[in-house]
Amino acid sequence: MSLKKYLKTMKDDEDNLDIVSPCFKISPDVQLKEVPTNGEEYLLKVIKERKNIAAVTKCNKDYSKFAENQSQYVHEFPRLSVPEKLKPTIEWQNMQVADFSETRMYISRLLSKRKIWKNNINIIEIKPTCVIEWKQFFSTHIPTLSCVLGLQHALLDQGLEVLTDIISRTKPGNTIEHKTGQWVYAFLACTQLPLLSDTTSILRNLARKCAEIRFRLNPDEENAITAATPLNIFICLVARYFRQYDLAD
Question: Are residues 138 and 229 in the same domain?
């Protein structure tokens, strides 16, 4: 057979293909059994079961509002604007990211030498869902490395979530307390990468709460820039270091 005739025959076969045609033919003598004993009986059972299933399955949920790779819809409020007087420059944000990166590298080097200093850390035990214990812990402890590194990684997300709740209670016109800010920074510095989905949600919520507090500051007050600084730092780190770029200033 010539190449030209072969290609024509192949094209004719492709035109006659039927994607729903059976791949295997089963002898009419094969009987349907509850427990197949050979390949043909198994295929017959599969074919019979397939007839009870619709050819096209429709989703009964409205996914039109979902993000492309999102399996569950999470409502997020629109991003609040920032007064120009309180908006950090790109250069300033880059400096914060660089300093934060150095801090995380220092912690990483410490963790690699855990055998040397493991006896000097404070092992912290807290019920993950007990908010009262968390708040007492934050008020009675100082965020030193010996304290933060004593927390299991499973507790970091819960602690950061409680800190976000504490921040959300800041009165309009005020900023977060200095010690609370130190705890947030310490927890961010110990947050593991790559981020889990729950951790991402917590970080985004933290940044949005900070943006909300900043939005309620009076930019004309003398200490407005100072009050906005810790808020700008946390928004910057979540957006630019942890790559939630849509929240960036």
Answer: yes
